[in-house]
Specification:
219 residues, alpha+beta, Aminopeptidase, 6-stranded mixed β-sheet, 26% helix, globular, binds coenzyme A
Length: 219
């Protein structure tokens, strides 16, 4: 595994984090990406969790980043259960596959646990997140706000029983509803990159988001 230091992000890292996030996500799920803009605006969000905003540094260079926001499960029986969500999680392409992403998840999971958070829910590839204790949120009766169970909605309890009796739907911070025009304007401040369609990672993403089944709220 690569030798890395994990530490909180500082303002001096902001641009490097946005650059690496753009490099990691560019054309990954779809042509281009918005995640560097998301990283840029999340830090200002009232739902941002600065204690869990971490970077991975190798040889003085920021090569990975993880950010967390507060999220909720809106319970079928009424009320809400608080949770955490992470993303963007990004590793500079040249440093991927060397344990950086895993180290960022593992470290911040422990910190989140120590801070008393109950659970993390994310949208992501189950093939990756199952390595870190994530299971389909369906196992806890948690679906999406649009009324389905989807395999990309992954959940991980940080405190035993935190996701018991919480049938409902997942709600992430409103910041994730990106304004495409603002994102495109922000991207103009970065070097030109070509948008490419039809990549295997995009096909995988399309397949994942189609893996759904209807969910009826329990009354
Ligand atoms: C996903 C990401 C953060 C993982 O970080 P990383 O440092 O490359 O991951 P690690 O080194 O900890 O783990 C690498 C392993 O995970 C696997 N892996 C990485 N992404 C995966 C995915 N989407 N699905 C399945 N496996 C994946 C690799 O094949 C590798 O497997 P191996 O150990 O059997 O060789 C990084 O690859 C990345 O930035 N990707 C682009 C952006 C992205 O998809 N972010 C997550 C959005 S949900």
């Amino acid at each position: 595994m690569l030798s890395i230091e994990l530490r909180p992000e500082s303002p001096a890292d902001f641009r490097a984090v946005e650059e690496l996030t753009r490099n990691a996500f560019w054309n990954h799920h779809a042509p281009g990406c918005d995640e560097h803009y998301l990283a840029h605006i999340l830090r200002e969000s009232s739902n941002f969790v600065p204690e869990l905003d971490y970077v991975a540094v190798h040889d003085g260079k920021v090569v990975g980043s993880i950010m967390y926001t507060r999220a909720w499960i809106v319970l079928d029986r009424g009320g809400e259960r608080g949770a955490l969500c992470f993303g963007p999680l990004a590793v500079e392409p040249a440093f991927q596959g060397q344990g950086v992403g895993g180290a960022l998840i593992e470290r911040t999971k422990v910190l989140a646990q120590e801070l008393g958070y109950g659970a993390i829910l994310i949208f992501g590839d189950p093939a990756y997140y199952s390595r870190f204790g994530f299971v389909p949120a369906e196992q806890y009766g948690v679906g999406t706000s649009w009324g389905v169970y989807i395999i990309s909605l992954q959940a991980c309890e940080l405190q035993p029983g935190a996701l018991e009796d919480c049938e409902g739907y997942f709600e992430e911070s409103r910041d994730f509803q990106i304004d495409p025009e603002k994102s495109a304007a922000f991207d103009k401040g970065f070097s030109y990159k070509e948008k490419v369609e039809g990549l295997p990672s995009q096909e995988r993403f399309q397949w994942i988001i189609q893996q759904t089944k209807p969910r009826s709220p329990c009354s």
